[in-house]
Structure formats: structure tokens, C-alpha cells
Description:
By secondary structure, this protein is mainly α. The chain has 4 helices and no strands.
Amino acid sequence: MSGVFAELELRIIRERVRSGMANAKAKGAKIGRPQATADDIPAVFLRHYPAYKKKQLNVSELARVCDLSRTTVYKYIDLLEE
């Protein structure tokens, strides 16, 4: 019996969250994480990026030098090469 109440409560919470998000979106609020742009790329990455382009650094070395994750390095490379 408690499982039924738990499911009902979960359904109510989900509906409340969806309703709140729809209301915020209707008022013009942006929902979700902001998209990164080329202006958001740190200077340390831009300083070492030419060495990556000249094949003096690979992605792992570039990530280590810039103190970033490899995933973030790939994201910044994609932003610069668009």
C-alpha cells in the first residue's frame, strides 16, 4: 500500500516541477545550463592551442597543461573550429 502512495507522491512532484518550468519558460526564463561560447574559453587554453594545432601537443597533454578535462578540451576545440 505504501508503494501506491509513493508513486502518487512522485507523480504529483513531477507535475509540479513541469508546471513550474513551463510557467518560467512562458515568462521568458531560460531553462537549463547556459551554452558555452568562444568568449568563455580561458586564456590559458588559447595560449596553448597553437601548439596543439602544430601537433606539438595532443589532447591529453593540452588538458594537463591547461588543467582541464579532456571533454572540456574537445568542447573548446569544437568552439574554435566552427
